[in-house]
Amino acid sequence: MIKKLRYLKIFLSLLIIMSILYISYNNVVYKNKKYIKLNNNLLLSIYHNKICIFKPNKKLISKYEIGDENTEILSYDINDINNDKNLDIIILTRNKKEAYGNEIKIFSYSNNLNEIFSIDFKRFNPWKVQFCDVDGSNNIEISIGVYKKTKFHPVMAKRPFIFNYVDGQLIPKWRGSRLSKPFDDYIFVDIDYDQEDELISIEHLRDGQKVINSYNWNGFGFEGKTQSKPFTDILSISKANDNEFMVSLKKGNQEEMLNVKYDNNNRRFIYTKNKKEGF
Questions:
Q1: Exposed, middle or buried: residue 182 (CB in 10 Å: 0-12, 13-18, 19+)?
Q2: How are the residues of the chain apportioned to helix, strand and coil, as percentages rounded to the nearest 5?
């Protein structure tokens, strides 16, 4: 009996130690993650192959793990795709050993994360997913950045495809062959406050410089709106809010982050230095 009690004490002690280590590990894991504030005061964190929802005090309330340790989330975006007042998260996953993605999934969150859509997109070499509303209809579209040939431009290149999401299916809206120039990346922002998202891209000039280009949806495709002055190099582009965006410029060995807004009267971009800590 005494021997059994001794083993029980050892077991309980090991259990307590393992629990402490688990809690400590998770605190370390979540401590330095990037949190995105959601409209309902919750926090979202996406990293590696995990989607996590936290309370404002950073207490974990929902977690979804995708695939195994070789899976990672390459790209994601957040919106309410079906106007049900619930948060929807679209993600693109890939194998860590591969350059492009494979599966596209959509999750809805009310009290828990629930997968509502999944498709294997590997043959198109996807590299980015985004929500957008290019026609101002309030019916959110899905844009998928792909790397492939097309019928009218039979060379491998980056291309932005647009799909409507209807009854759990992707319906092609625009699968254009290319933008006006080769591009590195693109986002959607309503820069002119007309309730329609413009496509904003980083594009290459023939002399090696880069420009920011913008396009409006015309009902059948995208037409050029405004092009920026040339820059030596544009490292990245990201959405700042519903109507402005940020660009990262390379200046010598330095990186400079600029906020960009659109002057609708003069049809030009206005740049201001981003004072946010960390840039």
A1: middle
A2: 10, 50, 35
- State the DSSP code for 231: B
Residue 259: name the closest of 249, 130, 203 by CA.
Answer: 249
3-class DSSP assignment, residue 15: helix
Cα–Cα distance for residue pair 124/189, rounded to 1 Å = 25
Q: Can you say whether the dihedral through the CA atoms of 17, 45, 92, 62 is positive or negative?
A: positive
Report the distance separating Cα 79 and Cα 246, nearest Å.
Answer: 20
Using DSSP, how many helices (H) and how many strands (E) does the chain show?
1, 20
53 touches 44 (CB < 8 A): yes
Q: Say how many CA atoms lie within 13 Å of 176 toward its Cβ.
A: 14
10-residue mean pLDDT series, the chain (279 residues): 56 46 37 70 92 92 93 96 90 97 95 93 98 95 96 91 95 90 97 97 97 96 96 96 95 91 95 65
- Confidence (pLDDT) at 23: 35
Check if the beta carbon of residue 104 is closer than 8 Å to that of residue 119. Answer: yes
Q: Domain 33-176 falls in which CATH fold?
A: Methylamine Dehydrogenase; Chain H (2.130.10)
Residues sharing a CB contact under 8 Å with residue 208, sequence separation 6 or more, in sequence order: none
3-state secondary structure of 237: strand
φ/ψ bin of 216: left (φ > 0), alpha (ψ from -120 to 50), beta (otherwise): beta
